[in-house]
Amino acid sequence: MSFGTVLRAGAVALAMTAPAMAETVKVGVIGPFSGPFSGSFGEPFRQGVETYVAMNGQPADGIEVEFIWRDLQKPDPGQARALAQELVAKDGVQYLAGFVFTPNAIAAAGISQQAKIPTVIFNASASAVVSQSEYYVRTSNTLAQVSVPTAQDALDKGYKTVVTAVSDYAPGVDAETNFAKAFTEGGGEVLESIRMPLSTTDFGPYLQSIQLKKPDALFVFLPYGPPTYSFVNAYRDNGLDKAGIAFVGTSETQEVDLQSLGDAALGLETGYFYSAAHESPENDAFKAKLKELYPNAEPNPATVAAFDGTHALYEMIRATGGKTDPDAAIAAIKGKSWESPRGPITIDADTRDIVQNVYIRKVEKDADGRLVNREYKTYEAQPDFGAQK
Amino acid sequence: MTSFPTRILGDLAVPLAGLILLALYPSQQAFLAQIAITAILVLSLDLVVGFAGLATLGHAAMFGAGAYAAGLYALHVWSEPLTGLIAGALAGAVVAGATALMLMRAHGLTFLMMTVAISQVLYEIVSKARDVTGGDDGLFGFTMQPVLGVWEFDFFGKLAFWYSLAVLWIVFVLLRRLMVTPFGQTVRAIRDDAGRVGSLGGRVYRHRVVVYTLSGGIAGLAGALSAQTVQVVGLSSLSVTYSAEILVMLVLGGTGRLWGALVGTLVFTVIHHYAASIDPVRWMLFIGLILVVIVLFLPGGLTRGIALIHAWLTGRRAP
C-alpha cells in the first residue's frame, strides 16, 4: 500500500466519522486565575461560566463548547496580546472572553478586530474598551453607568452637598468624574474631591477633614477587599454616621466582601447592578446551582457578569451553528435582551455595551443573620453614560 | 580571546535560535516577540548587574520610559517605527544618565534603595499624568507605519517577531564587541576592584555613569519595541515588580555573561508559559520551586552549569 493510499483511506475514515462527532467550539478565557486578583475575579469568572454550563448544557445538539483558561495576573498588555494571539493562532479559539484590567482588554482588541474574534468582556469597565474592536461585547458595567444613577439618587434623597473620596486610580477617577458631573448638573454641590493613594490603610485623617466640611453625603469609590473594610470602619469610628454625613457608594458592599465587613456595613446605601438578594426566579436558580457546584462561593457581581457573558457566547454559537462566522455571531448578539440573575439586560445594538438596571440598595440582615444588599429602588435600563459624549 | 570562527558562530547564535524557536512555536509569534524584547532588556540589565557589578531593582524605569516615549512619539509626532526606536532609546538613556549622576555616588544597599525610589517616583509621575499617559488605563490609540515602509505590522505578530529579533541581534553583536574593548575591560575591572582601578588612574565614576546610561538606552530601546509591537503601554512596564522579574531571569541564566541573559530569559519565559497553560491556578508554585533548586545547586546560573559540563567534557578547568 502506497503512502498516498494510506492518506486517502485516512481521509475517508475521517470524513465518515465527522458527522457523528460533535462540533467543538473553543472559547479562550483570559483572567487572573492565580495571584492577588484570583479571589475577586478569576474564581468568580470560572464559577459563573461553569454554573451557566451546568444549568444549560451544551448550546445545541452536536455542538460542544470547550473553555480554555489562561492566567493573566495583572495589567500586562504585552502578555495579554501574546495570550490572545496564541489562543487564536495555536489553539484555534473562535471566541475570547474574560479580561479584568482595561489595558489588557485594549491590547487584545487588535487581535479581536483583525482576526475577527467575537470577544465578551467580563469586567474591564472603562468606557473606551468596547469601542476598541467591532467584535467586543461587554456584560459587566462601566463606572459611569453605576455612578450617574447613584448621583441621581443622592439628589432625590435631598442631599445638597457632597465630598467625594476615591482611590487614586483610573476606575476611582472615572467614578468621581461621572458622579460629580451628574450631581452638579442636578443642582448639587461638590465641596471637595479627594483622591486617596491606592496603598492607603489609615483613612482616619481623610475622614476627619471631611467631617469638618460637614457635607450632606460622602461619595466613595474603593477597590475590592481590605481598603473597603478599613474605610467603612473608619467611617463609623470617626462618627461620620452620627454627624449625619451619609455614605454613598457603588461596589463597596459587593457580596464577596459583604460578610467580612460585618455589622459596620449595616445601613450603608449603594447603587450597583447586582445584589445577591435580588428577588427573581432567575436569581434563585442561579444561586441554587452555584451553591451546589461551589458550596463556599458567594454570588458576586463578577460571577454574574461571567454567567451572562456565557449566555452571550451561547447566543452567538447558536446563531452560527457552531461555525466560524464572526460577523453573523456579532450581529446575533447586538440588541439581544434577556433576563439575567441581576434583572433584565440588553446588549446595545450600536455600542455592543450592556444596558441594565441600576439598583439602590441598603445593607440589612436577612432571616439567617447574614448581611444582604436589599434593593429598594430601581433606575431602569441605564446605558453607559461615559460613551455618550 | 576566542578564535575568529567561534566569534562568528557566536554572532549567528541569535538568528539561529530565533529560527529554531519559530520552527517549534510556528503559531505563537507574539510570544516569541515578547521573548526577544525581554531578552534585550535583560541584556541591558546584565551590563549594570553583571558587568558593572551594581545590583539594581529599578531597571524597569528605563524600559517604561522608552515605552512611553515611543508610544507618545507615535501618537503625537510620527508613527514611523525606526525613529520611534531612537526616541525610546533616547528617553531610556536620558532617564538613566540623569539619575546615574546621583546614583553612582551611592554604593551597595543605598544604591539599591535609590534605584527603587527613582522608579517609584517615575511610576507615580506617569500614573498621575493621566491626560498624557492614560494612567492605569494605559497609553493606547496609536498605530504604526510599516517598518522601512515595506513590512506591515500584522496581528499574528510575524513582523513583531522578525523586527524584535533583528534588534536583539544587533544589540547582542554590538555588546559582544563592546565588552572586549578597553572600555568594557575597565568596567569589569571596576566591578572586581574599584579601589584599585581608581588608584591606577581609572575614572570609576565616569565609567559607571557611561555604562549605566548605555544600559538605560538599550532598556529604552526594548521598551520602544514593546510599545510598537503591542500598541498599548501599561503602568506595569515601570513597576518594581517587573524590575525584580527581569533580575530573576538574569540570575537564572547567569550574571556577567551576555549568554546568561539570553538563556535566562528564554528558559524563564518558556517554563512560565508552559506551567501557566498546564495549571493556570497553581503554576507560580512550580516556578518558585525551580528557582530555589537552581539557586541552591547552580549558584552561577544556567550558563555556569553549561560551562561546568563543557569543562568536564573537555577535561579543562572551568573558567
TrEMBL record, chain A:
CDD domains: PBP1_RPA0985_benzoate-like. Residues 1-22 form the signal peptide. The keyword Signal applies. Gene3D superfamilies: 3.40.50.2300. Residues 24-366 form the Leucine-binding protein domain. Keywords: Amino-acid transport, Signal, Transport. SUPFAM superfamilies: Periplasmic binding protein-like I. GO terms for biological process: amino acid transport. InterPro entries: BCAA_transport, Leu-bd, Leu_Ile_Val-bd, Peripla_BP_I. PANTHER family: LEUCINE-SPECIFIC-BINDING PROTEIN, PERIPLASMIC BINDING PROTEIN OF ABC TRANSPORTER FOR NATURAL AMINO ACIDS. Belongs to the leucine-binding protein family. This is ABC transporter substrate-binding protein. It comes from Seohaeicola zhoushanensis.
UniProtKB/TrEMBL annotation, chain B:
GO terms for cellular component: plasma membrane. It is a multi-pass membrane protein. It comes from the Bacteria. InterPro entries: ABC_transp_permease (IPR001851), LivM-like (IPR043428). The chain crosses the membrane at residues 7-25, 31-54, 61-79, 85-104, 155-175, 209-227, 247-271, 283-313. It holds the Pfam family BPD_transp_2. It is found in: Cell membrane. The keyword Transmembrane applies. One of its GO terms (molecular function) is branched-chain amino acid transmembrane transporter activity. Keywords: Cell membrane, Membrane, Transmembrane, Transmembrane helix. The keyword Membrane applies. PANTHER family: ABC TRANSPORTER ATP-BINDING PROTEIN, HIGH-AFFINITY BRANCHED-CHAIN AMINO ACID TRANSPORT SYSTEM PERMEASE. This is Branched-chain amino acid ABC transporter permease. It comes from Seohaeicola zhoushanensis.
